[in-house]
Design goal:
This protein has four helices and seven strands; from the N terminus they run ββαβββββααα. By secondary structure, it is an alpha+beta fold. Strands 2-3-4-5-6 form a five-stranded mixed beta sheet.
Length: about 170
Amino acid sequence: MDKLRNYDVSFSGLKTGKHEFKFEIDKKFFQLFDTDQEFTDPKIAVDVLLDKHTTFLEFEIKVKGTVELVCDITNEDFTYPIENQIGILVKFGEEYDDSEEDVITIPANDHAFNISQLIYENVALSIPMKKVSPNVSDEDLEILEKFSPKEIEEEQEEKSDPRWDALKNLKNKN
């Protein structure tokens, strides 16, 4: 966690109310995580709004910038705009717990909260599953459509098993 220390938001000396933090992230940030990325050359600005209350913290994390993606159709690189926002409630308890979707519990004696994982997830959720370059021509899309598997709508007739028909008749008699 020491390598992610730059993404700690220290709240212990802050007054109750709203506070802003800004981060610029690039490929060095994503190299801190031992995962493969589906994108390259990230240039992302992160705005963190912390609303400090006496018993809990509210974080709103906005990411905005660009990444380079590889088109699934043409296999060429293109720049994709990233813009996403998440809200997290941080409350104090006995130990760290992130089992709830929008609520994270941290130990009551902590003085800072690390937002690196939240930034990472916010960017990862902004990447589309299907990556299509805006430069894809209509011809490419027509060819793709031509060779794409078609949904076959076959009506399957229910074939009744004569062994069960006798039992169904017993049910109908009652």
